[in-house]
Structures are given as structure tokens and as C-alpha cells.
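Input:
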Amino acid sequence: GENVEQHPSTLSVQEGDSAVIKCTYSDSASNYFPWYKQELGKRPQLIIDIRSNVGEKKDQRIAVTLNKTAKHFSLHITETQPEDSAVYFCAASYYGGSQGNLIFGKGTKLSVKP
Amino acid sequence: DTGVSQDPRHKITKRGQNVTFRCDPISEHNRLYWYRQTLGQGPEFLTYFQNEAQLEKSRLLSDRFSAERPKGSFSTLEIQRTEQGDSAMYLCASSDSGTAEKLFFGSGTQLSVL
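Output:
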């Protein structure tokens, strides 16, 4: 089955700096890679996702890159703000037919210091 | 609130008791998922439904766990003979058929087994 590894487990940056979180996956059949943000005591929320037919996707200050050959994908947050502080989870899945469930990494706790 | 709702938010029970959680998905969503999240970990897939059919179950879902979605709308997750190791946040998520991979999570039910 799919296995997702996520690094680092904690990340501390100064406000305005960039943050990068990396994930690797094991199943070459996986074709969908979302990132979720979970603030303390709240539900995970989808912030950006990418499909395997795309190498990069950007949405304002956040971007995701995918390297299918190396089976890794990364989240990039630029110009970090204190409200970016949260736990970020990457996930991977194969979507097709009746299949479909997300396998999550263990999370990265991002702290943005003002 | 038109999001995914879960009830109760918190449940404290004694070991050996049975508990049942309810999830109401976003109304037009035909897929419903159950995940379990423990402290410092990412959500772990338990099971998912497409309409009323339970299409996939994780090995994590022991025979003490049962999930139903009788009319393809709300779902219940029952845990029989609870154990301390069952203490976790139980998250429900839903998605629609057009963008089945985009999961919208509820706020979860926090279970504490004493």
C-alpha cells in the first residue's frame, strides 16, 4: 500500500521568510497530492493540490511542486505570516473508479515568529 | 453551516462500553469517509462510502468497529467494547462525484476511553 513520509516534523521561520515542506510517496500509481492545513483544535482544510500530470501549481503565496520520477512533492510558502502557523499535512492517493482514499504524512508544525 | 457536521464533539466513556458517532456530510456529496487522528499524527483512513455502499475498509477497522450509511446521507461509526487505544479524534469527510478527491472534513469527535 501507499506510504507517505513528511519532513521536517517542525519548522520555525521568521515572518516574511519562506518555508518548504517535503514529502515522499511509495506507490507510483498515486496520481493526486493534496496539502491540508490544520490549526489547533480545528478541522484539516485543503489549501492546494496537484495531479500527477502537472509539475507545479501556484496559488498566491503557496505553491506545490511534484517530481514523479523521484516520487516526491513539496509545499512552498513565501512571505510567511503569523497566521500561517499551523500543522501542515501532505497526502497521496490514487483516484480512479471506485478506489480512493488519502494516505497522510505525519505532519509538519510550522511556527512563524513575528 | 453547510459544512460537514459531526456529533458529539467530545465523548468520554469507560473501557468496555459501546459508543456511536454521527456524521452529516455536505448535502450534495455522495462520498463519505471516516478517518482517525491521534496526537502528533496525520489522519489515518478507516473506511469510505459511495452513497450507501461501503467500498473500502482499512485493516485498522477491527471487528469492533462498524460503519453504516443506510440512506446514502448521514453515517454512523460504532465502536464496541472500547479500549484505551481507541482514544483519538474521529474525523468524517465528504466529497462530491465531480471532484471526488477533494475531501472536506468535519471538526471531529474526540473520544477519550478511561
